Amino acid sequence: MIRRHELSDAEWELVQPLLPQPALGRPRLDDRTVLNGIVWKFRTGVAWRDVPDRYGSWASLHTRFRRWAADGTFERMLQAAQAQADAAGDIEWLVSVDSTVVRAHQHASGARKGGSAARPSAGPAAG
Predict the structure, then answer these.
(1) Residue 21: which of 80, 67, 90, 78 has the closest Cα?
(2) Taking the mean position of all CA atoms in its chain, how far away is CA 96?
(3) Full-model pTM
(4) Could you tell me which residue ranges the Insertion element IS402-like domain spans (predicted)?
(5) Cα(107)–Cα(72) distance, rounded to whole angstroms?
């Protein structure tokens, strides 16, 4: 069953070949389960400790996330997703950047000099 915050089969097929091969040794948690836990964490915005147990230990998820971030796995995933979207014509690469900053001077706001527009009178003028 595919849950709301998990990878679809098509998404998994795209990223699976990009994951590092596990080293020989003791068995570890399935990569798809770990990746679904990482995706769930970032899509929901919860703390690592609040990731559901169905994804495995939060510490294992965090360790794998840090390892994959350090070795460029997520960068390769992004590049593959961009290449696929670009081939399908789903990315518009034209970017417009405007660094103009317009600041109004404090006197340009229309306020009268020295405070409010109407000053209270001190009483009748002596005279």
Answers:
(1) 67
(2) 21
(3) 0.65
(4) 7-77
(5) 52
